[in-house]
Amino acid sequence: MRYLVTGGAGYVGGVVAARLLAAGHRVTVLDDLSTGFRAGVPEGAEFVEGRVRDVARWLDDSYDGVLHFAACSQVGESVVDPEKYWRNNVAGTIELLAAMRDAGVRTLVFSSTAAVYGEPTSTPITEEATTAPTNPYGATKLAVDQMITGECAAHGLAAVSLRYFNVAGALGAQGERHDPESHLIPIVLQVAQGRRESISVYGTDYPTPDGTCVRDYIHVDDLAEAHLLALTAVSPGEHLICNLGNGNGFSVRQVIETAREVTGHPIPETVADRRAGDPAVLVASAERARTRLGWRPGRQDLADIIADAWAFAQREEPSA
Predict the structure, then answer these.
(1) Nearest to 241 by CA among 147, 104, 155, 169
(2) Distance (Å, rounded) from C-alpha 164 to C-alpha 74?
(3) Do the beta carbons of residue 4 and residue 70 sit within 8 Å?
């Protein structure tokens, strides 16, 4: 099979592209490198540098499907520059869907997000939970999900939207290269490397066992496996939405302490005020993914997730 991976020079897209190649598929990565990295494109993939809104220049009927990761994804930036997010995430996907329709490419796997749920009232979070995004990033992802539902009903697209919770870990040479970095585990590891002085703990008075926020972490390789399973999970006209998480929650303090054990470094921490809009607990129910995709996360241990991220961080550490 031949697949187009938009945003395949990024973290998750690059790992998925690598897994597709390992499964024997032909892969073309389309990325404008605005946030991705050329080094993130796995060996063996064809690379096209370009914008998703121009995808019609490259997409034709030789492709069996599209895996769509190309998006702006910084929550804070989306608040101060919402038009960038609507233009790229929504308008770009409109062009992608049109190009797929014109080329007769009828399979899509979309990289969605748990941010569509906003601040949930209960956990674990199921796909039936109210969608109430609290920032433009989540709002644009929800808008795309809704667009895909309409495309499936009107034009027979077979599509799966996968709503991620907290992705971490690495697959060999494929790992997180965000700039700026905003995710907890790579920031903690930057402290271990001496690239930051300390890690900030935002709030220690939450109604959780140790007072810090609890989040659901999923290994990026498990996440990639769900994408491969999704490619054959639905029929034309169907839009399946699945949460992806491991169903376990780990607190900020648990992440820091586990990183200390894995790296052998002290990792100083400082306590800061709560951040507005940070829910105490975000944990996914992935039962639908288990039932419909046949997916089971195989790497649920936090130490294993951090160890893989640490191995990648050491490979990427800048020279002195």
Answers:
(1) 147
(2) 14
(3) no
pLDDT of residue 291: 97
- CA 310 to chain CA centroid, Å, is 19
- 261 and 195 Cβ atoms separated by less than 8 Å: no
Cα→Cα distances 199→48, 196, 234, 283, Å = 37, 8, 43, 23
User: Which residues, given as ranges, of the chain have pLDDT below 50?
Assistant: 319-320
Whole-number Å distance between alpha carbons of 251 and 248:
10
CA pair distance 136, 77, nearest whole angstrom: 9
106, HSE (Cβ side, Cα atoms, 13 Å): 13
* Among 73, 50, 259, 263, residue whose Cα is nearest residue 179: 73
Residues 6+ apart with CB under 8 A from 131: 116, 117, 118, 142
SS3 150: helix
CA separation for the pair 236, 234 (Å, rounded)? 7
Unique residue bearing structure tokens 């700039």: 179
CA distance 126 to 71: 24
- The pLDDT assigned to 315 comes to 81
Q: Which residues are catalytic?
A: 137
Q: pLDDT for 98-132, tens place per residue?
A: 999 999 999 999 999 999 998 888 889 999 999 99
Q: Which residues pair with 112 in a beta bridge?
A: 163
Bridging pattern class, strands 250-251 and 214-215: antiparallel
Cα–Cα–Cα angle for 125, 130, 132, rounded to 5 degrees? 110
Residue 7 sits at the vertex; the CA angle it makes with 318 and 171, to the nearest 5 degrees, is: 50
Which residue type sits at 168?
A: A
On whether the pTM is more than 0.90, the answer is yes
